[in-house]
Amino acid sequence: MGIILNQSFKNTVTTYLGFGLGAINTLFLYTNFLTDEYYGLVAFLLSTANIMMPFMAFGAHNAIIKYYSAFVSKNSTNGFLTIMLFLPLVLIIPVTLIGYFSYDAIGAILSRENSIVANYTWHIFILAIAMAYFEIFFAWTKVQLQTVFGNLMKEVFHRFAIMLLLLAVHFKYLNVEEFIIGLVIVYVLRTALMKLYAFSIRFPKLNFQIPENFNAILKYALLMIIAGSVAMMILDIDKFMIGLMVEDIEQVAYYSVAIFIATVIAVPQRAMHQIMMPLTAKYLNEGDSKALEDLYKRSSINLLVISGFIFLLIVLNINQLYLILPPKFTGGLFVVFIISIAKLYDNSLGSNNAILFNSDYYKMVLVFGVILALLAIILNAIFIPVYGINGSAIATFLSIAIYNTIKVLFVKSEFNIQPYSVESIKICIVLAILFLLFYFWDFNFHPIVNIALKSLFVMILYFTMVLRLRVSNDISQQIKKYLNI
């Protein structure tokens, strides 16, 4: 776990830095410098682009990670990487042409409930293409086991740039329309910088020789388009459907704030995922089942310990945090609770996703994913009209819970390994005890002071219990290392 912990730690730091900037943007700058209508519009544009991204990437970023370590000669590797660079154009070119000739029709569909969206259809296309090629260049560096710079660009760069743009709006250097154009430019620039870094690590030597296993690669890429779309859809279909089904697009803004708070729990998984993917692919290609199982179990307990702590910080301080935000955003309190639980479950799966996406069973991910995507759409369509953003949160929770349970059972069935242990139960008990002890208790100070003091008490108690219960050797070693004990 040495290289995993090393790069995961660095990635966690940069990811939290990014989330810190994102928190400032989401909780304070967006809510104060943009109208609710335009904040909802920005959330809608980014969510829709995220849903389109896997199509634009044509599954190339997933294929690079799965197949790169299977090539041994430089010539075959260069041929493979060349194909991966140009493969997305198979979809990007026709989609762009369709967008050009059907612009008005597409705009009419997207703006059915909110006419403001119609003027920003091309922004969605450009954002989706930039996001797609960013992931391809990031995958290019992941297979070289270099993930830190890419994670910095993925988590920090665009959030910092957006902060500057929001400040420019506040000081009237930009109007809102110019801000949205600037937002698109930021994502394009991020992709360009990622490309330069990726090529500095391994400069492409164009070789249009078709790999021998090209049919398998193409089949995998095609399936990953749908599988990746399912993953993105689960993340963003809620905001997309709220924007389509609710007359007040401001509700997307309120929901986005709540989702952002809950998503902080996913940071450790996102950080560790960058290095787990290529390593899992390597173990699978080499047939090293022992290393695969060890990575599965250790990643699960480590992520559960770390994300469990973040879960406590969020749910124990959420009431105080909402006292700082504008009152109209407090409607998202239920959303924070239920999505936080879903994200905690998600983290506890460890390297489950890496195993499924890089094994010969990736086709089943597609089957599960399509069923789940349909379920998410149906549940959102049922619950949103009745409960609004709370209904969307319920639909998202049920979708994630069902999807994750299916994945755990499938890996257990096919690989005879599962991520959980007695230590997992211990951590869940610790979380329940600390939640009951601290949720209904606060200091009589300013909310920020309350959050800081309660978080300090929880941190001391939580990690003391983690050490005493010996739930994770990796976590215990890191604690002892930094405390010199």
Structure, described:
It comes from Winogradskyella alexanderae. It is found in: Cell membrane. Pfam families: Polysacc_synt. The chain is mostly helical and 485 residues long. 81% of the residues lie in helices and 0% in strands. It has one domain (2-483). It is globular, with a radius of gyration of 22 Å.
Largest sheet: none
Structural class: mainly alpha
> Helix-strand pattern, N to C?
HHHHHHHHHHHHHHHHHHHH
The domain tally reads 1
Shape: globular
User: What is the number of strand segments?
Assistant: 0
Helix content: over 70%
Poorly predicted runs: none
Strand residue percentage: under 5%
Mean pLDDT across the residues is 82
> How many helices in DSSP terms?
20
Radius of gyration (Å): 22 Å
Alpha carbon gap, first and last residue: 21 Å
What's the short story on this structure?
By secondary structure, the chain is an all-alpha fold.
Short key terms for the protein model shown above:
single chain; 485 residues; mainly alpha; 20 helices; globular
Summarize the helices and strands and which ones pair or pack.
Blueprint: H1 2-33, H2 36-57, H3 60-67, H4 74-86, H5 89-101, H6 103-110, H7 121-142, H8 148-170, H9 176-201, H10 214-245, H11 250-263, H12 267-286, H13 289-324, H14 333-347, H15 352-358, H16 362-387, H17 389-415, H18 422-438, H19 447-469, H20 473-483
Main location: membrane
Keywords: Cell membrane, Membrane, Transmembrane, Transmembrane helix
Subcellular location: Cell membrane
